[in-house]
Amino acid sequence: MQAKVLLAALWLGVAGRASALQPLEEFLRGARSASPDNAEARAARRQLDADADAELGRALPRLSLQGQYTRNQFETTVELPGAAGGPPARVTITPKDQLDGAATLDVPLVDLARFARIGAARTGARASGTQAAATELRVQALVSQEYFQLLANRALVGASRKALEVARASLSIADERHQAGSTGLLDVDRARGEVERNVQQLASAELQVALSARALQSLTGIAPELDGDRPLTDDLHEEPPLERFQPPDEKLPALAAAMEGREAAEQQARAQRLTLAPSLGASLTERVTSAEGLAGRDASWQAVVGLSWSLDLTTFAGIRAQDAAADVARAREQRARLAAHDDIHRAWSTVRSQIARSRSARVQSEVSARASELALERYRAGAATQIDLLQAQRDAFGADAARIQADADLVNARAQLRLAAGESLLEPPGGGAP
Question: What are phi and psi for residue 288, nearest 5 degrees?
Fold first, then answer.
């Protein structure tokens, strides 16, 4: 529920009801099903689940059936003396046509290495599921970044259009003054050049909108609706202390996946050592044949209990390899732990920095806008040069663009902080892990 409230707060901070652009939540849900990264993570999870079931199946009793038909060129028979002086009996040793069938039940009784591998496979499957949750958060981070950048680019288009209108107004004033003989043609040419510079600026901003919209669509499978304006603001509130965003290690999906991967590697190493122990198994075979032969029976069974043990160089090499793999997994876990906590600290510090940056950028934008208006009035009255006017207008646009980007970065930083702390921006389906 907390993630849902956060999502609503982020949305209200950047959205007006009149705008047609879809809410962030819609793009996040689209990415859950359309993102190739999420699809790959889900497929990997299903694969490891199936591998764990296969490993379990190797330790369960196994039934195998076999049927065989034999056609011989010659039939072999023998005559045996009859019992108690009776007539001789003809016995077929090799018939021309023979049918044989066998059913064998193999039961592993004691196989310590195999049992240990089952546990390792199950742990690996759990790690894959946790990794899928980590991938979900990473995709949400990308979607959030692209979404707020799209809002910033759209706002920049509006600022560029406004700057173009101001430049055209300045050109009109310069032309009027030139017609009245109070200024030279150079001012008109400068004003016309400023108009064209703003035309290029607007074209560049529109290109960025198109590119960011395409990137967002590729991530989510949803085409952004770009009609209407959407203000991009933030109330500049401070975040809770850093400790609020430092959950236990097992609550951070990327780190939890590394911990489970390390555990699976250690279980594999133990399983490899257990190959030094012998294994005990049993089998029961029932055979049926159409040729009774000398035995005089068409069905018989056989039970076997066997103890097997093998030892060669590959056994010890396998132990060393699995021990090294466990060491690699431990190093990866430590790297993931450092990276996870560094990401949280970086995101929290970034929010603090972006709050100061956004507050300063807003003041700068407001002051620069007033300076531009004053410069235009002074130029119209002949109390300022055109160079002063052009510089003031460029400063105003640059400050407005910096304010837009600072606000977008701040809102995005708040979302990235939650994601770094393992909090999804969406309610997980069914209340489980995403």
Answer: -130, 135
Is the distance from CB of 150 to CB of 216 less than 8 angstroms? yes
- Please tell me the distance from the alpha carbon of residue 268 to that of residue 49, in angstroms, as a whole number: 16
343 residue type, one letter: D
Res. 432: pLDDT tops 50: no
CA distance 149 to 409: 8
Contacts of 198 (CB under 8 A, 6+ apart): 160, 163, 164, 167, 397
Q: What is the pLDDT of residue 174?
A: 86
The amino acid that residue 127 corresponds to is A
Residue for token digits 């055209």?
A: 168
> How far, in Å, CA of 31 to CA of 24, rounded?
11
> What residue spans define the domains of the chain?
2-63+116-279+319-431
Q: Which two tokens stand for residue 45?
A: 């999870």
User: Which of 345, 332, 327, 340 minimizes the C-alpha distance to 250?
Assistant: 340
The pLDDT of residue 3 is above 60: no
| CA-to-CA dists, residue 118 to 165, 265, 268, 307, angstroms | 71, 12, 9, 21
What secondary structure does DSSP assign to 322-345, as a single string?
HHHHHHHHHHHHHHHHHHHHHHHH
Could you tell me the CA-to-CA distances from 130 to 135, 220, 422 in Å, in that order?
9, 22, 11
Residue 11 has pLDDT above 60, yes or no: no
Architecture of domain 2-63+116-279+319-431: Up-down Bundle (1.20)
CA distances (Å), 338 to each of 239, 414, 422, in order? 22, 21, 15
SS3 for 312? coil
Tokens standing for residue 34: 């359309």
Contact residues for 119 (Cβ-Cβ < 8 A; gap 6+): 267
CA distance 104 to 286: 6
Whether the Cβ atoms of residue 324 and residue 339 lie closer than 8 Å to each other: no
